[in-house]
Amino acid sequence: MTTSDPIPNINIGQVYDKRYADAEVHYDALGRMADFFGRNMPAHRHVRFFQVHYVKSGMVRVYLDEHQYHQPAPLFFLTPPTVTHAFVTDADADGHVLTVQQQLVWSLLEESGDLGDVSDIAPLCVAASQLPAPQAPAMAGLDRLFDQLRGEIHRPRPGQPQAVRALAQLIFIDLFRLARNRVTPQPVRHEDLSLFQRFQMLIEDHYPHHWTLTRYADELGVTENRLNEICRRTAGKSSKRLVFDRLMQEARRLLIFTTASINEIGYQLGFNDPAYFSRFFTREAGMTPGRYRADKRAL
After folding, report:
1. Residue 191: exposed, middle, or buried by beta-carbon count in 10 A (0-12, 13-18, 19+)?
2. What pTM was estimated for this model as a whole?
3. Residue 240 and residue 70: Cα distance in Å, rounded?
4. CA angle 242, 246, 252 (to 5 degrees)
C-alpha cells in the first residue's frame, strides 16, 4: 500500500498474501480478508488489477467512484483497475474476493468479441434481489463457480494453475453477461462523501492516539453532531463506531498475524493499561483477546 497518495493503491499479493505476489489470480474468502483489512474498508484502488466481491450473506454498502449502492446479499460488485472504491459490510457478511491481473480480463474480452469493449469496462453492482426471474439461475451458477475456485485454491493437484485460470475466466464471463442488470446507484452528496473519506484518513493516522470525536470534528472543520450525521448517512455507522472498528480491526490483525503478547498489542494500540485493553476488546468482540487468538489459530 502506498501511503503518499491521497487514495492508496493496494496490491493484494504484496500487502496481504505474499505467496501470490506475482500470481495472475488471487482468491480468498471475504470473511478472512475482513479479518485483515476490516469490515469498514476506506477508499482505495488496485492499479493493474480487476477485483470482484461476491457477497453471499449480510448487507453491504459500496462506493464505486462516487456511486453508492446499499444492497442485501447475494450480490457482486466489479471494480476495474484504478477505480476508487470503499465499502462497509455487516459483521456476519461472507463470500468471495477474486483479484486478477488486468491482462487476463482484456485477453478474454478480445478473444470473445461480444462480452464488452476493453476500453469501456465500468464499475458495476448486480444484486440477486433485482434480477429478472430468467436471470436468477445465472447468479446461482456464479455461486457454484466461486465454490469450485475455492476448492482448487485450497487443494493443490495436477493442473491447478490452468484450472484456476479457467475458473476465473468463467466467472468473468458470467459477470459480463449479468452486467446489463446492474443496480442503479443511489444518490450521494459529494461533500458528504469527501468529508467522510477525510475522516477515514484521519482515523487511519490517529486511531492509536485515541483522539476524541471533538478533536476529529475540529480537524475537519465541522461540529461533532454534523460528523456523526454524515457517518450514519454514508456508512450506516456512528463516528464513534468507525473509530472503535478501526481499533478492533488492528487488534484482531495483530492477534492473528503476529506473535506479540496481548500486553504488547495493547501498548501498540495506545492502551497504557493492559487490563483496559482486555476489557475493551472483550466488550467489542464478546470474548477475551486470548480466546480470540486461540480460536483463530485452531482453524
Report:
1. exposed
2. 0.78
3. 21
4. 135
242-284 pLDDT, tens digit each: 999 999 989 998 998 899 999 999 999 999 999 999 999 999 9
Enclosing domain of residue 233: 190-298
C-alpha cell at 18: 505474499
Considering the domain architecture, whether residues 120 and 165 belong to the same structural domain is answered as yes
Residue 263's pLDDT is what?
Answer: 96
Whether residue 74 is preceded by a cis peptide bond, meaning omega within 30 degrees of 0, is yes
Residue 101 within a domain: yes
Which among 45, 41, 74 is positioned nearest to 59, based on CA atoms?
Answer: 74
Report in angstroms the alpha-carbon separations of 139 from 55, 148, 182: 11, 14, 13
Identify the pLDDT of residue 119: 79
Estimate the crossing angle of helix 274-285 against helix 289-298, to 10 degrees: 60
- From 149, 181, 213, give the residue that closes a domain: 181
How far is the C-alpha of 17 from the C-alpha of 10, rounded, in Å?
Answer: 12
Q: Are 138 and 173 within 8 A, CB to CB?
A: no
Evaluate whether residue 54 is within a structural domain.
yes
The answer to whether residue 286 sits within a structural domain is yes
pLDDT attached to residue 8: 84
- On whether residue 6 sits in a domain, the answer given is no
Check whether residue 212 and residue 173 sit in a common domain: no
Do 75 and 164 share a structural domain?
yes
